[in-house]
């Protein structure tokens, strides 16, 4: 990234997740010791009237936003802060997109920072995560 060209209003590159993986949800449920069957058990989903596609975990959705922001800013070490609000559910197989815009620039203790408004949305659907991120500009 060429930080001298970053200004308020700069749009982050769009970050696409072409298809949310049900298999990754199952793995994440095991890693998080999350016994909630809506993340991996289709029979439970059907019994609850929730269809037949597992529901993605919030930490995975937040991870897509983190990946988008840090890819733009130069890597994981650039992330200073991420605050998100979960607005909806993400289902296996959905196509997601992260978008972001620089909302502020500042300097703190000699470090140049960019504050960004971010959103994760289902393509041709609604936003499912919104929030703000702060990254170090190198």
Automatic annotation (TrEMBL):
Q: Name one Pfam family in it.
A: MaoC_dehydratas
Where is the MaoC-like domain positioned along the sequence?
A: 20-108
The similarity comment for this entry is: Belongs to the enoyl-CoA hydratase/isomerase family.
Name recorded for this polypeptide: MaoC family dehydratase
Q: Which organism is it from?
A: Geodermatophilus maliterrae
Q: Lineage, please?
A: Bacteria, Bacillati, Actinomycetota, Actinomycetes, Geodermatophilales
């Amino acid at each position: 990234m060429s930080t001298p060209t970053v200004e308020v209003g700069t749009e982050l590159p769009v970050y696409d997740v072409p298809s949310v993986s049900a298999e990754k949800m199952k793995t994440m449920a095991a890693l998080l010791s999350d016994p909630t069957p809506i993340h991996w058990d289709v029979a439970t989903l059907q019994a609850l009237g929730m269809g037949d596609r597992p529901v993605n975990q919030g930490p995975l959705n937040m991870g897509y936003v983190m990946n988008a922001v840090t890819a733009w800013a130069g890597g994981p070490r650039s992330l200073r802060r991420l605050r998100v609000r979960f607005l909806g559910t993400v289902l296996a197989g959905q196509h997601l997109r992260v978008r972001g815009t620089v909302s502020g620039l500042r300097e703190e203790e000699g470090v140049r920072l960019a504050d960004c408004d971010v959103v994760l949305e289902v393509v041709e659907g609604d936003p499912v995560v919104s929030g703000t991120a702060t990254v170090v500009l190198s």
